[in-house]
Amino acid sequence: MPPVFRGARALVACAALLPALPAALALPVQRMFPAGCLQGDARFGSGPTLSVGCVAYPLGPGVRVFDASNRLLLTGQLPGLHGRVVFQRDASGNVFRVWFLDPTDPSLRTVPKVPSQCLFGNG
Predict the structure, then answer these.
(1) Do 90 and 34 form a contact (C-beta atoms < 8 A)?
(2) What are the pLDDT digits (tens) for 11-44?
(3) What helix, strand, coil percent values describe the chain, rounded to 5?
C-alpha cells in the first residue's frame, strides 16, 4: 500500500477521536500528596508565616507554593493570599511545600485536616 494511503488512514482515525477530546479533558485529576501532609483554610501573612486553623506555621527556606493549576507562585505574591491548601512540614516544623486547591477537589478526601485551635469558632 502506498504511504499516502497510510497517512490518510491515520488522519481519519485522529479526526474520529476529536469529539471525545473535551470529555477526556473535563475529568478531574486525582492528585497524590506525600505522607504527612495536612489540609486546612490558610492565610499568608505579611511575615514569613502561614496561618492554618489559627496556628501560625513558619515558612522554611526554599518554600514552594503551587496554585490550583500547579504553577509555582513567587514569594512576593504570597502576602494576603488565602484559600484551601494542602501543606507539608519538615522535621523542624517549617512549612516547605504548599498546594492551593479548589475546595471541591476530590484529592482533598485523602488528606487529614488540621485540628482547629481557634477560640469561639472563628476559623
Answers:
(1) no
(2) 666 666 666 656 555 556 678 899 999 999 999 9
(3) 30, 35, 40
d(CA 110, CA 93): 21
Q: How many structural domains are present in the chain?
A: 1
Could you tell me the residue range of the domain that residue 93 belongs to?
38-112
Residue with cell 485529576: 29
Query: Considering the entire predicted model, what is its pTM?
Result: 0.72
Domain assignment present for 103: yes
Name residue, grid cell 517549617: 94
Rounded Cα–Cα distance for residues 9 and 11 (Å)? 5
Burial degree of 98 (CB within 10 A; 0-12, 13-18, 19+): buried
Question: What are the residues facing 86 on neighbouring strands?
Answer: 39, 99
102 CB contacts (<8 Å, ≥6 apart)? 68, 84
